[in-house]
Glycosyl transferase (Sphingobium chungbukense), 364 residues
Amino acid sequence: MKIAQIAPLAESVPPLLYGGTERIVSYLTEELVRQGHDVTLFASGDSRTSAELVPITEKALRLNPRVVDPIPYHMMLLEEVRRRADEFDALHFHIDLLHHPMTQDFAGRTITTLHGRLDLPDLPPFYRTFADNSLVSISDHQRLPMPPVNWAGTVYHGLPAGLLSPRFQVEDGYLAFLGRISPEKRPDRAIRIAARSGMPLRIAAKVDAVDRAYWESDIAPLIEQYPNVRFIGEINEAQKADFLGRASALLFPIDWPEPFGLVMIEAMACATPTIAFRCGSVPEVIDHGVSGFIVESEDEAVAAVADLPKLDRAIVRAAFDARFTAERMAADYVALYHDLPGARTDAARLRRERGEGAGLQVVA
C-alpha cells in the first residue's frame, strides 16, 4: 500500500528525548517500510526515517526558540497533506483533531489515532460533529469518555523487538521512575514508596515549563529529604535500556486516566517488571503477577516491592514479545487500512463486497 503518516511537529520523528507520540510514529513508519509498504512521512525536517520524508519545518517546534505559536505550522502541514492526498491509499493522522474539517472529501481513506486523554469537556461536541471519521484508540479505557463515534479499532503501541535488550539478572538494583514530572504522574508517590521499601530510587524525567512550579514546590524539596533518591533528568533512547534494565522495577504510580503508558512496555522489553497503580490503561498492559503488579495504594506498592523476587524476568520479556512488538502493531494498522471504506486496494474492495470488516476491532 501507499501510506501517508502525518506526525505532530512539536518533536522530530523519532524525538531526541521525550516524545511518546512521535516515537510511536517512528516505530510504525519504519516497520511499515520493512514490511514492503510505500510510506511517506509528513514531519519536521530533523526527522530520521527510511520512508520518504516531507519536511514541513526545519526542525522540531519545541527545539526552535523562535516559534511562539505552533498552529500556523500545523496549518502548513495540513495544506501539504491536502495537496498530495490523492497519491495515497490510506492516510494516517496522529495530530488529534486539527485535520478533520480539511479531510472530509477523502475521509474514507483516513484514520486518526488519538494519543491523548479524552476526558476533556471540549472534546465531545467536536467528535459529535465529526462522528463518521475513523478513529483508533490506544486502549479500550481511553474510549470511555467519548460520545458515539466511528471506532475503527484499538491498537496497542509496539516497540521494535531489538530496540531494548533485556537484562535477566539484576544485582544491587533500584526502583526507576521514567517520564515526566507532573502532578498526574505522581513522582511524590514514587519517592515515598522507595523510602518506605528501603530501595534506592532513580528519577529520569523532564520538567516542562508548565510543571516547573510543581517541581519547585512539591518534588525538589521532597527529593532533598531522602538520600536514597537521585534525580537524573531527561534521558535519551540510547540511555533508556541501561536505565530500565538495571532497575529492579519501574514505578508507575499514576493518578490519571493514562491512555496507554509507553514506559510500561519499554520496561517490559528490558525484562523489568512494573509496579503500577490501577488507572487508565494499566490493567490492559500489565498482567498482574506476570509482567508486574497492579496496586491501588502506596501500602500495596510497598508490599509489591517485597514481592518482586517472585517474578521471572524472562517471563516479563516474553510478555512483551507476545503482545507489544512494532511488527504486531504495524500488522494491526495494515488490517485497519485495508478495511477503510475508501481504501484503494483489491483486498478492501473484496471484503466490502462480502460484507466483511464492519465494526472491526483490532487488539493485541
About this structure: The two ends are 22 Å apart (CA to CA).
